[in-house]
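Action item from last week, closing it out:
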Amino acid sequence: MTSTRVTVGITASRAAQRAAEWAAREARLRNLPLRLVTAVDAPPSDDARDDDAADDHGKSVLAEARDAVSRTAPDVDSDTVLRRGPASRVLVEESREAFLLVVGARGLDGVSPTNSGSTADVLAVHARCPVAAIREGEAELPGGGPVLVGVDGSPVGERALAFAFHEAALRNAPLQALHAWSDAPAEPWVQHRGTGLSWDRIEDRERALLAERLAGRQEQHPDVEVDRIVVQDRPVRHLVERAHRAQLVVVGSRGRGGFAGMLLGSTSQALLHSCPAPLIIVRHQP
């Protein structure tokens, strides 16, 4: 995995400050430099003093984040960047030279928030590298928990699985591989339509498929302890439930249920707004 830096989007929100602390730890873990970026999305002004005030506010936000980074990981080489424009556009451009783009799960719409919609959603789709979304309070969660990954067999799911194995090996952490073998809510009294197979027989088949998907990755990372989890249900509920005990959750941006025109899958989108642990979304390839 080639890279140049870990990049984090900075705003005045508490979630963004937590994201900076988390990103500093990630940069130190990977021995990479850290870049703190803030976007000043202020409306044009005829008074240069207004523009200067917006820039000064942005610089203040960056300085506060850099102080937090220095306290968290003083040995990490970091720099700060202030750019004008919408946060989503600025961070997508910055992602071209990043191994990982880190953002707070709230307060992502620039120093002067004027945008509508979620910047995190935009970045999960358009960033050129994996995106980590950090909710307020996550940066201080202790390590030692597993890396949790959603496995669905899709091409982007395979990339997410490879990323998760790499993360588990890097952190010396166990890996929990969760595979949901139904995209419908669990109804154990119903047989799988059109197959004539009972749920038990389908579950045996899905366990075998999961083992097959994991086999090659386990050969590449023999020191990673893997816990295989197969559930009959939509994956979001089980991922969120287990995320409370995980140090990291990894999913693909669009799974097996995604249509060609669907840029962000339902699972990744739901987790983006509800995952209680740091979440990394590995995007699909254009």
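Closing note: Strands lie at 6-9, 34-40, 78-84, 100-104, 131-134, 147-150, 175-180, 226-231, 248-252, 279-282.
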